[in-house]
């Protein structure tokens, strides 16, 4: 096997490179083997990625045992949970690009033969996938695993309950002590947020699309089995390198549709729309936002996971893992079983090998779905000509008509909700929070939770050119495109304008006559960029529309 790493490790001219590598303990024998980069998103600022340093040791052991040479390097992570509701959240989506770019750069520089990407918090997962698809060298995504749920008054709680408790406290429904009690128990240790929020949604996606070995992701981060899972990923990558199994062969159109089906069936995060569109762009697969509507419509909702349901990732693990979801999708013909995965087995074969725990209640039988169609609906119309997304899991309303309450940033909307300034029936419009406008499409979990916590969940709607957390629930429409900062129709909404959001007909409209709108459009002036230097300025310049996945890499 002629290895790409030989360019850097073999022959006379590479003596200086070998000298340096020998200085850190590598031997001639090591350098003849496939060199596998371990891209680690460990960071000591959040629970999600906290134990990844330990897991990297197991991955390295697995790589050595399988006949390879591991080389570990770091990249970054930004916590959504910790930055939520602040200006810090603007760094979150931008970090996806930095994770992808940094993995790409180290791998191109050091010419690894394969990669294991150790990920956990939301953006690190698609960030790693974008890098693998760009590089198109064998690669495994290893999800560090979810947190265990906390316990409050005999019930499982996650970070979602803390966010909603803030809203309930602001509305005078719970005391400061109760809020503190929930805060103190919600995160009982390391691991990514527990519900089918963005991290667990994207971890599900990675198994179904085939970049993570089946039944590795849902093992919780603190579970001892995770060490064996990590070592196993070392074996998988060596096998993938030997067989030259490439990300773009795995991530085909069929695999993307399978992944969308898994998001629909599990009630996953709306962020999956953004990340899968971005991944498809890197994979050269022609996937458009309407494909999410088609796949979600034909896929049943089979799992009752938080935020709208009752279970968490640790329960999916106990039920048998994502392999059980794969089994349902394949059995019901909602997924293509012939799609290849990183192990060399097809999705159908992986589903077949998965052991469902007898009597488990988490993944419903095909004849007993929660809903006949999946969790995501794509809306289009005069307010969002390029589309926008709503998660319908757990909402019963199909139509909302109401007056616009317009906010030019998240903070203003939050203040209105927490100071009793919204009315039943309102449509909160939060704009200039899009990819370019924010920049960085902040997640609005603070506001959406405050709405739920204050008891407006059944009566108000919200729409934004920003994003939502996977923990957001309620009548919340995100990713409205084109965004306000580029002069999308959302920029022309005025206080009190009637808005219609019609889920059944997948429509979102601003019910104002064309002449009035034309006059508003004519006097609209684009706001100056929020940042003129640094990473955010570069991002503002390069980032594409949310309907294209908000990517920065296809600049030519
Ligand atoms: C739950 C969090 C922190 O909001 C985030 O992880 C997400 O799901 O988007």
From TrEMBL:
<dbReference type="InterPro" id="IPR000581">
    <property type="entry name" value="ILV_EDD_N"/>
</dbReference>
<feature type="modified residue" description="N6-carboxylysine">
    <location>
        <position position="123"/>
    </location>
</feature>
<comment type="similarity">
    <text>Belongs to the IlvD/Edd family.</text>
</comment>
<dbReference type="GO" id="GO:0000287">
    <property type="term" value="F:magnesium ion binding"/>
</dbReference>
<feature type="binding site">
    <location>
        <position position="80"/>
    </location>
    <ligand>
        <name>Mg(2+)</name>
    </ligand>
</feature>
<comment type="subunit">
    <text>Homodimer.</text>
</comment>
<feature type="binding site" description="via carbamate group">
    <location>
        <position position="123"/>
    </location>
    <ligand>
        <name>Mg(2+)</name>
    </ligand>
</feature>
<keyword id="KW-0408">Iron</keyword>
<dbReference type="GO" id="GO:0009097">
    <property type="term" value="P:isoleucine biosynthetic process"/>
</dbReference>
<keyword id="KW-0001">2Fe-2S</keyword>
<keyword id="KW-0460">Magnesium</keyword>
<feature type="domain" description="Dihydroxy-acid/6-phosphogluconate dehydratase N-terminal">
    <location>
        <begin position="33"/>
        <end position="349"/>
    </location>
</feature>
<protein>
    <recommendedName>
        <fullName>Dihydroxy-acid dehydratase</fullName>
        <ecNumber>4.2.1.9</ecNumber>
    </recommendedName>
</protein>
<keyword id="KW-0100">Branched-chain amino acid biosynthesis</keyword>
<comment type="pathway">
    <text>Amino-acid biosynthesis; L-valine biosynthesis; L-valine from pyruvate: step 3/4.</text>
</comment>
<dbReference type="Pfam" id="PF24877">
    <property type="entry name" value="ILV_EDD_C"/>
</dbReference>
<feature type="active site" description="Proton acceptor">
    <location>
        <position position="469"/>
    </location>
</feature>
<keyword id="KW-0479">Metal-binding</keyword>
<feature type="domain" description="Dihydroxy-acid/6-phosphogluconate dehydratase C-terminal">
    <location>
        <begin position="362"/>
        <end position="550"/>
    </location>
</feature>
<comment type="pathway">
    <text>Amino-acid biosynthesis; L-isoleucine biosynthesis; L-isoleucine from 2-oxobutanoate: step 3/4.</text>
</comment>
<feature type="binding site">
    <location>
        <position position="122"/>
    </location>
    <ligand>
        <name>Mg(2+)</name>
    </ligand>
</feature>
<keyword id="KW-0411">Iron-sulfur</keyword>
<dbReference type="Pfam" id="PF00920">
    <property type="entry name" value="ILVD_EDD_N"/>
</dbReference>
<dbReference type="InterPro" id="IPR004404">
    <property type="entry name" value="DihydroxyA_deHydtase"/>
</dbReference>
<dbReference type="InterPro" id="IPR056740">
    <property type="entry name" value="ILV_EDD_C"/>
</dbReference>
<dbReference type="InterPro" id="IPR042096">
    <property type="entry name" value="Dihydro-acid_dehy_C"/>
</dbReference>
<keyword id="KW-0028">Amino-acid biosynthesis</keyword>
<feature type="binding site">
    <location>
        <position position="443"/>
    </location>
    <ligand>
        <name>Mg(2+)</name>
    </ligand>
</feature>
<dbReference type="InterPro" id="IPR020558">
    <property type="entry name" value="DiOHA_6PGluconate_deHydtase_CS"/>
</dbReference>
<comment type="function">
    <text>Functions in the biosynthesis of branched-chain amino acids. Catalyzes the dehydration of (2R,3R)-2,3-dihydroxy-3-methylpentanoate (2,3-dihydroxy-3-methylvalerate) into 2-oxo-3-methylpentanoate (2-oxo-3-methylvalerate) and of (2R)-2,3-dihydroxy-3-methylbutanoate (2,3-dihydroxyisovalerate) into 2-oxo-3-methylbutanoate (2-oxoisovalerate), the penultimate precursor to L-isoleucine and L-valine, respectively.</text>
</comment>
<dbReference type="GO" id="GO:0004160">
    <property type="term" value="F:dihydroxy-acid dehydratase activity"/>
</dbReference>
<dbReference type="GO" id="GO:0051537">
    <property type="term" value="F:2 iron, 2 sulfur cluster binding"/>
</dbReference>
<dbReference type="GO" id="GO:0009099">
    <property type="term" value="P:L-valine biosynthetic process"/>
</dbReference>
<dbReference type="InterPro" id="IPR037237">
    <property type="entry name" value="IlvD/EDD_N"/>
</dbReference>
<feature type="binding site">
    <location>
        <position position="48"/>
    </location>
    <ligand>
        <name>[2Fe-2S] cluster</name>
    </ligand>
</feature>
<dbReference type="InterPro" id="IPR050165">
    <property type="entry name" value="DHAD_IlvD/Edd"/>
</dbReference>
<keyword id="KW-0456">Lyase</keyword>
């Amino acid at each position: 096997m002629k290895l790409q790493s030989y360019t850097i490790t073999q022959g006379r001219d590479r003596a200086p490179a070998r000298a340096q590598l020998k200085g850190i303990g590598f031997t001639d024998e090591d350098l003849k083997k496939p060199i596998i980069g371990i891209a680690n998103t460990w960071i000591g600022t959040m629970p999600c990625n906290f134990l990844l340093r330990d897991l990297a040791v197991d991955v390295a052991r697995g790589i050595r045992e399988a006949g390879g040479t591991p080389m570990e390097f770091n990249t970054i992570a930004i916590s959504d949970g910790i930055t939520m509701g602040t200006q810090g959240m603007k760094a979150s989506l931008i970090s996806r690009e930095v994770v992808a770019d940094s993995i790409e750069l180290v791998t191109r520089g050091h010419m690894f033969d394969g990669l294991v990407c150790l990920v956990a918090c939301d953006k690190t997962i698609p960030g790693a996938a974008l890098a693998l698809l760009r590089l198109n060298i064998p690669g495994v995504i290893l999800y560090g695993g979810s947190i265990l749920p906390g316990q409050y008054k005999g019930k499982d709680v996650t970070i979602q309950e803390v966010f909603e408790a803030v809203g309930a406290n602001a509305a005078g429904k719970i005391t400061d002590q109760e809020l503190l009690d929930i805060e103190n128990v919600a995160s009982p240790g390391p691991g990514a947020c527990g519900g089918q929020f963005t991290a667990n949604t994207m971890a599900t996606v990675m198994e179904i699309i085939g970049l993570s070995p089946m039944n590795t992701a849902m093992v919780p981060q603190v579970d001892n089995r995770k060490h064996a899972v990590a070592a196993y990923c070392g074996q998988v990558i060596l096998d993938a390198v030997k067989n030259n199994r490439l990300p773009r062969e795995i991530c085909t159109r069929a695999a993307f549709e399978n992944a969308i089906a898994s998001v629909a069936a599990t009630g996953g995060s709306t962020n999956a729309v953004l990340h899968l569109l971005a991944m498809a762009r890197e994979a050269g697969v022609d996937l458009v936002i309407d494909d999410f509507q088609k796949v979600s419509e034909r896929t049943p909702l089979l799992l009752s996971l938080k935020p709208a349901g009752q279970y968490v990732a640790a329960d999916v693990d106990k039920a048998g893992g994502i392999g059980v979801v794969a089994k349902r999708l394949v059995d019901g013909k909602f997924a293509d079983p012939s799609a290849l995965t990183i192990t060399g087995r097809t999705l159908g074969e992986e589903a077949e090998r998965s052991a469902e725990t007898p009597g488990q209640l988490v993944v419903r039988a095909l004849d007993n779905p929660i809903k006949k169609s999946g969790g995501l609906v794509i809306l289009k119309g005069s307010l969002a000509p390029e589309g926008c997304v709503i998660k319908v899991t757990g909402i019963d309303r199909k139509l909302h008509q109401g007056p616009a309450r317009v906010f030019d940033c998240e903070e203003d909307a939050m203040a209105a909700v927490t100071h009793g300034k919204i009315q039943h029936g309102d449509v909160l419009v939060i704009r200039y929070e899009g990819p370019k406008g924010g920049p960085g499409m902040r997640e609005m979990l603070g506001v959406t939770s405050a709405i739920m916590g204050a008891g407006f969940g059944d009566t108000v709607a919200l729409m934004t050119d920003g994003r939502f957390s996977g923990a957001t629930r309620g009548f919340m429409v995100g990713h409205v495109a084109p965004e306000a900062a580029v002069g999308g129709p959302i920029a022309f909404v005025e206080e009190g304008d009637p808005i219609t959001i019609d889920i059944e007909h997948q429509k979102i409209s601003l019910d104002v006559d064309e002449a009035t709108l034309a006059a508003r459009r004519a006097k609209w002036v684009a706001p100056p960029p929020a940042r003129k230097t640094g990473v955010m300025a570069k991002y503002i310049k390069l980032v594409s529309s949310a309907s294209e996945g908000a990517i920065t890499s296809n600049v030519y």
